[in-house]
Amino acid sequence: MSHHPEFDVLMITCPSRASLARIANKWTAMVVTALGDERLRFTELRTVLTGISNKVLTVTLRDLERDGLVARHVYEEKPPRVEYELTELGRTLLGPLEALWRWADEHTAKVLAARERYDAHR
Q1: Handedness of CA 12, 14, 18, 23 (dihedral sign)
Q2: What burial class does residue 45 get, using C-beta atoms within 10 Å of its C-beta: 0-12 exposed, 13-18 middle, 19+ buried?
Q3: In what order do the strands lie in the sheet with 81-86?
Q4: Do 90 and 64 meet the contact criterion of CB atoms below 8 Å apart?
C-alpha cells in the first residue's frame, strides 16, 4: 500500500497517520483549497471560509506551517501585514482535494438519499 516500506498508515505507530489526520481535517482541506495559488491575509481567509472561528483558523494555519504545507510571510509595515500561501509541498494536496470535492459534488444527492432511507428505517 505504501511507497515507503517504513510507512504503513494502517499501523498505529506509523508517523504517516498524523499527516493523514491533518489532511483529513475539514478545515485543513478548506484552507488548502482557499489558498490554492494565492497569497491571502488572515482576514481574507476568514471571509472565504465562512463558519471558521479565529482560533480554529489560527491553529489550522500554525499546524499547516509546522507541517511545511503553508508559508507565513510577515511584512514589517504599519500596521504589520501577514500573508499565507501554500508551499510547493502544500500545492501537492490540491489535486487530491479537487478529486474529493468532485466526488462530493457528484455524489451528495445519493448520500442524502441514503441517509433518508436509513433514518426512515430507524
Answers
A1: negative
A2: buried
A3: 40-41, 81-86, 70-75
A4: yes
Q: Which three cell numbers stand for residue 8?
A: 504503513
Q: In Å, what is the CA distance from 54 to each residue of 43, 46, 86, 105?
A: 9, 7, 19, 28
Average pLDDT, 10 consecutive residues per value, the chain (122 residues):
66 83 90 96 96 96 96 92 97 95 96 97 92
Q: What is the pTM (predicted TM-score) of this model?
A: 0.84
Q: What is the pLDDT, as a whole number, of residue 3?
A: 56
Cα Rg of the chain, angstroms: 18
Q: In a 3-state reduction of DSSP, which class is residue 82?
A: strand
- In the chain, the domains with their CATH numbers are 16-120 (1.10.10.10)
67-106 b/e with 16+ CB inside 10 Å = b?
A: bebbbeeeeeeeeeeebbbbeeebeebeeebeeeeeeeee
